[in-house]
Structure formats: C-alpha cells, structure tokens
Write a structure and sequence with these properties.
By secondary structure, this protein is an alpha+beta fold. Helix content is 27%, strand content 22%. The two termini are 37 Å apart.
C-alpha cells in the first residue's frame, strides 16, 4: 500500500522520459534529478549519507539556518536504531563532539561509521529528512527491482491517511477508500468502504487514536487484515501477499448529471490534466462539479491553467524563499473563461497542488467547496535530487502561501458545506457530497 503511494510521488516529481547515467565521480552534495534513477547503482554507502547531508544544507528551503549538529544527531540516532532492531549494535558507536561547523562536523562524524552498514545508512538518510517535519521533504529509497513492475497489495487509500502518515484528526472507523483493479486486494474481494478492524493482531484504533504501527505492518510483503462490511456487519480475515501491480496512468473521468450539470473527477494535477478537463467542458455545461477528493497534488502549472478558466487578472498563490521577496503566481489570461457555476468537492486526501487550487477557489470566490477540510500538506513544491545509490531526495526550496498570503500548510482549506463520505456511502455507491452540490446548483 505505502510503496505504491510513494512511487506515485516519485513519478510526479520526475516527469521525464529517459534515465540519466550516473556521474563518473559523485558531486559534493547531490545532483538535480532530471530523469528517473538509473537501472543500476552502487549500494548505499557513507558517501551517499554525505551527499544527503550536504544536499539538505545546500538545497532545502531553510538550509541556511539548519544546524549540522541536529542533522547528524538525527542521522546517528536512526542509524543505531536500525542496528539495534537487527541485533547488530556496535560497542564503539558513539556520536563524536560536534561544533556546528558543517564541514568540520562531517569530518568528525564519518570515521565513526567506518565502512558503514547499507541498511542502517538508508535509515540514517530517512531519519535526517523525517526530522525536518516537512510534508514535502522526502527520501525515496532505491527500488530493489528497478526494471520490474511495482509491487503491493493494491490497497491504495485509507480514510485515516493524510499523505504517508495518519491524519491527527482521524476518528474511527478506519475504512478502505481505494483498491487498485486486478490487485491481490481486488481479487480477494476487498472493496472501498470495507472497515479495517485489525492489521495482523493490532487494532486500527486504540480509543480514538489510530495505531501508527499498523502502517509499517501494512507495508510488509504479507499482511493479515480483519475487515467488517459496513452494511451487513459481517467480519472476515484475509491474508494478502504483495504481487506485481499494474498502475494505469491517471485519467480525468466525467459524468453528465441532471439539469445540465457536468461532474468531472480529477485524480491529480498530472501533466496535461487541465487541458483534459477543459476539453470535456467545450460544450459549455450549465454548471461544473469538480471532484478533487483523493487528489494528492501534482504540477503547479496545471493548477494555474485550470484556475485561469474561472478567473483572469488574479494572483493565485505566492512562493516565498527563505530570504527575499515572495513571488506571486498569476492566472494565465490566454485561457478562455468558462463563465459557469463551479462546485469543488474536497476531502482530507486533497493535498499539495490540490490545496493550491482549492485555496484560490475559496479566496477568490470562484465557487463553493463541499466535503471536508483539505489535508494541510502544502509546505511548498518539491524539487528532486539524485544520490549515488539511485535514491532520490525531494526537497522544497520555497514556502507556499495562499492568494491572501495566508499559511495553509498544516491547516488546510475549510469547506463551505461539511459533507464527509462514510464507509456505508462507499459500500452502497451513495455520494452525499454530489447530492448536496446538485441542491445548491
């Protein structure tokens, strides 16, 4: 489940066609990733960790103020934790004294690791990035089989998820929201709306708090799920083993509703998404319901192009560097205006570029929002950097602000009409958000 979601983020970040060759000698830090990772690369080494360390200091949004001591402390803690889990701790592993001098601290830190343990080094890189607590900073490990198809169980969405972690606002029940067709989950009869009671022997919730440990269990090659049907109440236990999965390219889908209203579902702001939507609206429907539920984001350029069909001469957002002036993002006034009523459906899985679009609709009074508050995962657009083991760092260089210069990250965009989707809704095919939209239109 989690592997598939992470792979999708990597594909979105690297919208290119051909793999890049590894440089003959690794750069001091990291190289901008202008292509997918190469099909083969050396194992993770101490040099890989060095690259990641300098990459964060040189390219992350607040790199100028990062404390090298904190980065290396988090890296060392993650390194030793990984060794402890495998019973491979070393008596000589102690963090050396650090001073805050970036180059001097690395010179003191590296010899302690010796040749380094590849698995623990990967944990150290992930530990440094996780410590940033930035929803758009991420480390993508090298694929074990870069030439093979993606693998997973096929459960691609949970009601309690927000990005790769649990939503702090999530409350029971936890239910499945998306299953990939043809996957092991689909073949086992798992459907959207099925309530997860347990993952292996761990309950989905303890009281009103989701058990974070089940995410690690759900990412394993084999997992046992205890499910309950939301309508019949029937409980069953299913053992799932990951297998190769075919992930179809995202597509815009549409449906004609009563009264000349067009429903358009946009799963992501992938390259060409805006033009796909606009092509479906050439016959000028009387109103548009744009379904952005589950839309995890994508390209800011696609956001701007689609917004420009509803407003001209407007500032849609701001990108702000760590120091200096914020850059306003403007509508593309070459896009013809549609001049039709707009309703946007959102949920807690609407993140990043999806929130960029939703915030502009809200602030610029372009339409009505129905569903639930968005994810609040919009720190800033990420850029991709390649490390010498074929892994990739995704790091934002700017911070995103809404059209009114408001902070949206960690907060999200509130809706005008709160209409959540329940497990029963998914299981029975009922869509109360669309029903509400039709009453308003």
């Amino acid at each position: 489940m989690i592997r598939i979601l992470s792979a999708a983020l990597l594909v979105a970040a690297l919208s290119v066609s051909a793999p890049a060759a590894l440089p003959a000698a690794p750069p001091a830090g990291c190289a901008p990733a202008t292509a997918p990772p190469p099909p083969s690369a050396p194992p993770t080494s101490v040099n890989t960790l060095r690259q990641a360390y300098h990459c964060l200091l040189d390219n992350y949004y607040s790199g100028p103020k990062l404390d090298s001591r904190d980065l290396l402390r988090h890296a060392f803690a993650a390194y030793t934790r990984d060794l402890l889990r495998r019973g491979a701790d070393r008596p000589d592993l102690q963090l050396p004294p650090l001073t805050g001098d970036r180059d001097g601290d690395w010179a003191a830190f590296a010899p302690v690791l010796g040749t380094g343990d590849p698995a623990a080094l990967r944990a150290a890189i992930d530990g440094m990035v996780t410590a940033l607590q930035d929803n758009h900073a991420r480390w993508m490990p090298p694929r074990q089989d870069p030439d093979g198809p993606p693998r997973g169980t096929g459960i691609a969405g949970l009601s309690a998820l927000r990005g790769d972690g649990f939503d702090p606002a999530a409350r029971p029940p936890m239910f499945i929201t998306r299953v990939i067709p043809g996957s092991p989950a689909a073949k086992a009869g798992i459907r959207p709306g099925d309530i997860i009671l347990k993952v292996n022997d761990t309950p989905a919730f303890t009281g009103d708090t989701a058990n974070a440990s089940i995410l690690e269990a759900a990412a394993a090659a084999t997992v046992r799920l205890t499910l309950q049907h939301p309508v019949t109440g029937k409980i069953r236990t299913i053992r799932l083993t990951e297998a190769p999965i075919t992930i179809e390219p995202p597509q815009v889908t549409t449906k004609q509703l009563r009264g000349g209203v067009r429903l358009v579902q946009l799963p992501g702001f992938f390259p060409g998404a805006a033009d796909q939507v606009l092509a479906l609206l050439r016959n000028h429907p009387k109103a548009l319901i744009l379904d952005l539920r589950g839309n995890g984001g994508g390209s800011p350029r696609e956001v701007t192009r689609l917004l420009s069909a509803f407003a001209h001469g407007k500032t849609t957002s701001y990108f702000c560097p760590f120091t200096g002036e914020c850059r306003p993002n403007h509508t593309d006034d070459t896009v013809p205006l549609l001049d039709i009523p707009l309703v946007v459906l959102t949920d807690r899985a609407c993140a990043s570029a999806c929130e960029d679009f939703t915030a502009a609709v809200k602030d610029l009074h372009l339409g009505t929002l129905i569903g639930t508050r968005t994810a609040g995962a919009i720190s800033g657009p990420s850029e991709a950097y390649l490390l010498d083991d074929g892994s990739v760092l995704l790091l934002p260089k700017v911070r995103h602000l809404g059209p009114n210069r408001e902070i949206l990250d960690t907060i999200g965009i509130p809706v005008d009409h709160h209409v959540p989707t329940t497990a029963r809704d998914l299981a029975t095919g009922r869509d109360p958000a669309v029903e509400r939209a039709l009453t308003l239109l």
